[in-house]
Amino acid sequence: MYVRWSCLLFLAAIPFVSSAQVLAPVVVSTNTTIRVMAANLTTSNFQRYETPGLNIMKGLQPDVVAIQEFNYQSATYPKNSDAGFREMLDNTFGTNFVYFREGGSKSIPNGVISRFPILTNGVWDDIELSDREFVWAKLDIPGTNELYVVSVHLKASDDSASTTKRANQATALKSLVQSNFPASAFVVIAGDFNIHSSTEAALTTFEQFLSDFPIPTDGVSGSSTNMNTNASRSKRFDYVLPSFLLSSNQVPTVIGSKSFSNGLVFDSRVYTPLPSPILFEDSGATNMQHMAVVKDFQIDYTVTNYVTVTSPRLELLSNNLMGWSGQSNVTYTVQASSNLTAWATAGSATSSSSNFVFTIPGGVPHPSFYRVMYP
Hints:
- The protein is mostly beta strands.
- The protein is built from five helices and 22 strands.
- The strands form five sheets. Strands 3, 4, 5, 6, 12, 15 and 16 form a seven-stranded mixed sheet that branches.
- Strand 9, helix 3 (160-180) and strand 10 (186-192) form a beta-alpha-beta unit.
- The chain is elongated, with a radius of gyration of 29 Å.
- The relative contact order is 0.18.
């Protein structure tokens, strides 16, 4: 379509599309929040997941779980069967969740449960223990960076020999992470650390390459809170430790109307109102030795949406300014010609709204023709 004013002639065009429409890729910034949980929530006498622990995980809705003592048996499926684990995930998290669990005959194995696809996974030998290893998984989260999660269950007890073993485990994990994961990766080591003191060598080592700040508690910001995670709430055994790069993305954990800026130590005997299906007594169930710990992280990324771009109608707004309505966040090319045969690019225009303007450059020969093009 041509519009003539004085000695200027404007042509609006989208090339090679007879319907005057084309699909344009529009890059949009967005984000997602990923909730990471440390969960050693087995109960009863068999160190396996039963209703109380499953209730807590279902109610808190984590996206990623570093899980310890990963055993399960139901009335339908035998202990630790593939079908049984599938039942556990479907009922607790959703049919879109996946998992990796160390194999073999380990009596209290570690694992990773994820809403995101597991790209690769593996097991690292824990030279200090024989009934579980270090389990890791690389998760395909949105964006250009992947998330590496390591599920650990360190040596228990407060004696000097056990403290030394935890220090050795922390040193080994530091070496394993730094030699196997990219330096720029998002990393979380989470689980049951069994650390008895904030001055333990194990925690000092972890703090050299992971962040322990802020420390989750069982209360909202500004309230009297407890950071301890064992059954009696007197020891801080359970941790979610992100790499420094990931820790800068931590955001408040929001559950219902409550917001926890440091993350959350969840105790059903303290928290109100309880998210369904959690019951008051779940955190105090027989042989429930730990509380769940969660931290949330916001991941920023871009997505490409395809939108229909129609032929714009150009208007002369002033002697040297033209405008048109178009598709927001699309870059249009403005071309000029003196003969409608040879076209030269005069510039481009982008707008976050549907209104576009372009300043006509000086020194353009007259009469001139203009067209706006995409792509």
